[in-house]
Amino acid sequence: MKNKIAIPNEIISSKIYFIRNQKVMLDRDLAFLYGVETKRLKEQVRRNINRFPKSFMFELTTEEYATLRTQIATLKQGRHSKYPPFVFTEHGILMLSSVLNSETAIKMSLQIIDTFVQLRKLAANYEELLNKIQQIELQYNNQFSEIYEVLQKLLENPKQTQRTKIGYKKG
């Protein structure tokens, strides 16, 4: 068993895309993380296609792939496949580890799934915070409007009244 340095979760999370309302990863990114060629990964998927229903894996349409290519600034001509990639959901990534069946694939799959779980927790925390803010706005809306009115009055130019002059008078 080789000692392989773990890849930081930030790198993994940067390779997760939101396509068709799902968090997915591209075949080439997974191949890189698993230490195999993209061609070999796709080969294994095709050989075991019955393990990958549409909810686990799908191929991007040409339009989706073109849109994705414009979002990834590091694409260089000739270095990426001209064919639309397979994209894998969280469940598809788990299934990949059984299809590839290597120590690296299993360890990397676990790390990727942990990253997905962390992202899900962050999203849940964000939703909780958003709900709390909305509750506060509803609860204190009247009070905030009163404060706003008072601030508006303070910011208005005061009416100029005739003031008596003070100081020495010239004779």
C-alpha-based Rg, rounded:
29 Å
Count of extended strands = 4
Quote the beta fraction.
5-15%
Number of helices: 6
Distance between the termini: 105 Å
Strand order of the largest sheet: 1-2-4-3
CATH architecture of the domain at 9-118: Roll
Overall morphology: elongated
Specify the structural class. alpha+beta
Short description:
With 171 residues, this protein is of the alpha+beta class.
Give a topology summary.
Blueprint: H1 9-14, E1 16-19, E2 22-26, H2 27-34, H3 38-47, E3 57-59, H4 62-71, E4 86-88, H5 90-100, H6 103-155
Antiparallel strand pairs: 1-2, 2-4, 3-4
Tell me what you see in this structure:
- The protein is α+β, with helices and mostly antiparallel strands.
- It has a domain of 110 residues: Mlu1-box Binding Protein, DNA-binding Domain.
- It is 57% helix and 9% strand.
- It is built from 6 helices and 4 strands.
- Strands 1-2-4-3 form a 4-stranded antiparallel β-sheet.
- The longest helix has 53 residues.
Descriptive keywords:
alpha+beta; Mlu1-box Binding Protein, DNA-binding Domain; 6 helices; elongated
